[in-house]
Amino acid sequence: MSGALARGLASGLLALLAAAAASAAVETVSVISVDGAINPAMADHVAGAIEAAHAAGSVALVIELDTPGGLVSSTKDIVTAILNAPIPVVVYVAPRGAWAASAGTFITLAGHVAAMAPGSTIGAAHPVTLGGENPKPPEPSESDKDKGKSERRHSDYMDEKMENFTTAFIEAIAAERKRNVEWAAEAVRNSVAIGAKEALKKNVIDLIAEDRNDLLAKIDGRKVGVGKRLVELHTKDAAIAEIPMSLWNRVFAVLADPQIVGLLFLLGILGIYIEFQNPGLVLPGALGVVAILLAATALQIIPFNWVGILLVLGGIALLIAEVHVSSFGLLFALGLAALAWGAWLTFHVPELSDLSLPFWRAVFPVATAAALVITGVAWSVSRAQALPQYTGAEALLLATGVAHDELQPTGRVRVRGELWNARADGTVHAGDEVEIVAVEDLVLRVRPRARADGGGV
Fold first, then answer.
1. Residues 449, 435: contact at Cβ < 8 Å?
2. Could you tell me which residues are beta bridge partners of residue 91?
3. pLDDT confidence bin for 24, thresholds 50/70/90
């Protein structure tokens, strides 16, 4: 009996050990989403996710990427974090129709494994300014060639310097991951872009995956170099651990949009102006201060031009001056022009980026809307000023009332439900209708109201 019990206990123990071994065999893959412009908040999110995935013992970190581009400084931070990651990083351009444009090209090439979903696109990595211009220098004319390089414009040198540096950067990344260096250079120099099938054919990426599960199944067993180690991926049927973006990074990611910054700045100025015009309202002033603080925080995240900020402030000052000075619309026009130009120029700086504040799609509509609103307010104010007075002493002139007492010549009259002391030119009987012809020290001077037939009262 004791032998059977021992055998039962041994069988149970073996079953528990087998279950524990099977549970331990289930690997974990961490996943993050990079959806939107590449900015410092996104860079911090990626770097933090790599550390968190490593600390949690994940076999790999999958970055699901869909971006139109972003700041070159933030792109460099992400690429550096991936190249020095202690665990394999898989960059997956997904879902279908996703972009790995501009900065996204650098990030995709930097991954230990680079994958794309069908219908996704990669490329167009030429450096551009924050205003959205393509800084590639034009072909020199014959006269320029004759003058020699010593007389070429400084801006051409700066543009060429940007392009050469960015090309070398992406070539180094592609060479490190043994991917198509020639195509990577073309993506920078000539802004070439290709789809997933062509990217696979040209050795830009490693594979095409239909979805996340397909990706994990296809990279299972693949060996990648992580530092000096060769690591084999065990991702098939792995548990998924989503790493969400922190609240602060989500806030900063929203604030890093130049259009949001511009709106916050204008709303802040408007709120503070309303508070100064109407002291004691509190709410507009408080909201204005909060908006200004948020805009100032955002300007610590993205580069900006001080000249643009000064133009915006000058434009607002001119618009306010128009309210107090009769310039026949001249100050208004100048203020609006300075506001629009300054808003566009604020984010037009020599920093490699794809973040932009487009003039015709963002600045012009806002400036037009502001012009319409201010014009409507000015028209309403001028129209109201042209209307007759409805309050004060002036509003009582030629108003009608009824004598409450016998006026010989003083007494009281009822006007608009109020009793006033009055003085009449002659005798006015109680109940007679009177007209007010003057207001003298809160005493109404009245006269009998003439009848429609021209006779007296």
1. yes
2. 63, 114
3. very low
Match domain 394-448 to its CATH number in 1.10.760.10, 2.120.10.30, 1.10.150.120, 2.40.50.140. Answer: 2.40.50.140
Q: Residue 325 and residue 321: Cα distance in Å, rounded?
A: 6
Sequence ranges of the chain with CATH classification 3.90.226.10? 23-249
Residue of higher predicted confidence among 33 and 9 = 33
User: What is the CATH code for 23-249?
Assistant: 3.90.226.10
The mean pLDDT value for 256-263 works out to: 75
Q: Which of left, alpha, beta for 282 (phi over 0: left; psi -120 to 50: alpha)?
A: left
**Hey, is 431 helix, strand or coil?**
coil
Q: Is the pTM of this model over 0.70?
A: no
Is residue 77 within 8 Å of 43, Cβ to Cβ?
Answer: yes
DSSP letter at 438?
A: E
Q: Is the dihedral of CA 55, 43, 207, 178 positive or negative?
A: negative
- Give the residue from 299, 303, 297, 286 showing the smallest Cα distance to 248: 297
Q: Name the segment(s) of the chain with CATH classification 2.40.50.140.
A: 394-448
Contacts of 310 (CB under 8 A, 6+ apart): 342
Q: Which two tokens stand for residue 229?
A: 């180690």
CA angle 232, 236, 242 (to 5 degrees): 100
CA distances from 277 to 6, 80, 272, 288 (A): 90, 51, 9, 13
> Above 60 in pLDDT, residue 187?
yes
- Residue pair 184/171 in contact (Cβ under 8 Å)? The answer is yes
Quick one: average pLDDT of 100-108? 94
d(CA 341, CA 348): 11
DSSP string across 327-392:
-TTHHHHHHHHHHHHHHHHHT--SS-------IIIIIHHHHHHHHHHHHHHHHHHHHHHHSPP-SS
Q: How far apart are CA 176 and CA 193, in angstroms?
A: 21
Maximum Cα–Cα distance across the chain: 135
Q: Cβ atoms within 10 A of the Cβ of 343, count?
A: 28
Report how far Cα 299 is from the mean position of its chain's Cα atoms.
11
Place of tokens 């026949």: 328
Distance CA 120, CA 209 (A): 11
The encoded tokens of residue 294 equal 């948020």
Residue 245, judged by CB atoms within 10 A of its CB (0-12, 13-18, 19+), counts as: buried
Residue type, 386: A
Query: 357-396: b or e for each residue (b if 16 or more CB lie within 10 Å)?
Result: bebeebbeebbeebbeebeeeeeeeeeeeeeeeeeeeeeb
